[in-house]
Write a structure and sequence with these properties.
Radius of gyration: 16 Å
Order of helices and strands: H
Shape: flat
Number of strands: 0
Largest sheet: none
Strand content: under 5%
Distance between the termini: 28 Å
Helix content: 10-25%
Number of helices: 1
């Protein structure tokens, strides 16, 4: 399900035959990866975010709470 068009939506025009830059992949600890996956799935399910087909990813930061949980 897509979120729908908004007046501020825009396209990012890429140069023909351009290749994406290569960046280092940062692995997450299994507990953190599972928490991130659950967060993403929950937000996909309620349409707060939508899937992307982009080869690039946005960084995600998970900050521990005072009780040590994520």
């Amino acid at each position: 399900m897509l979120l729908g068009y908004k007046k501020w939506d825009h396209a990012i025009e890429l140069l023909p035959d351009s290749m994406p830059s290569s960046y280092k992949v940062y692995l997450l600890a299994p507990r953190v990866q599972n928490k991130l996956n659950a967060f993403l799935q929950e937000n996909l399910d309620c349409s707060c975010i939508c899937p992307s087909k982009s080869p690039m990813a946005s960084p995600a930061f998970l900050i521990k709470k005072k009780d040590g949980s994520l």
